C-alpha cells in the first residue's frame, strides 16, 4: 500500500518533475509514462481531484 503522506518539498519536487516531463516529451514517451505512473503522481492527482470537489 502506498503511503499517502508526502512532505511539502516532495510534492513541489514531483510537481516540477511532472511539469518538466510534460513540457519536454510527447504523450507516447516512455520517460513521461514512467513519471506519470509513479505513486507520487497518483497521490498528487488525488489531491487535486479532491480540491476540485471542494
Structure description:
By secondary structure, the chain is an all-alpha fold. Helix content is 72%, strand content 0%. It has helices spanning 8-24, 30-36, 39-53. α1 runs antiparallel to α2 (30-36). The longest helix has 17 residues, at 8-24. The protein is globular.
Structural class: mainly alpha
Q: What is the strand tally?
A: 0
**Roughly what fraction of the amino acids lie in strands?**
under 5%
In quaternary terms, these chains amount to single chain
Identify low-pLDDT runs: none
Number of helices: 3
**How would you describe the shape?**
globular
H/E element order: HHH
- Average pLDDT reading: 89
Largest sheet geometry: none
Query: What Rg, in angstroms, do the CA atoms define?
Result: 12 Å
Helicity level: over 70%
Alpha carbon gap, first and last residue: 26 Å
A few lines on this structure:
The protein is an all-alpha fold and 54 residues long. The protein has helices at 8-24, 30-36, 39-53.
What are the key terms here?
mainly alpha; 54 residues; 0% strand
What order do the helices and strands come in, and which of them pair?
Elements: H1 8-24, H2 30-36, H3 39-53
Helix pairs in contact: 1-2
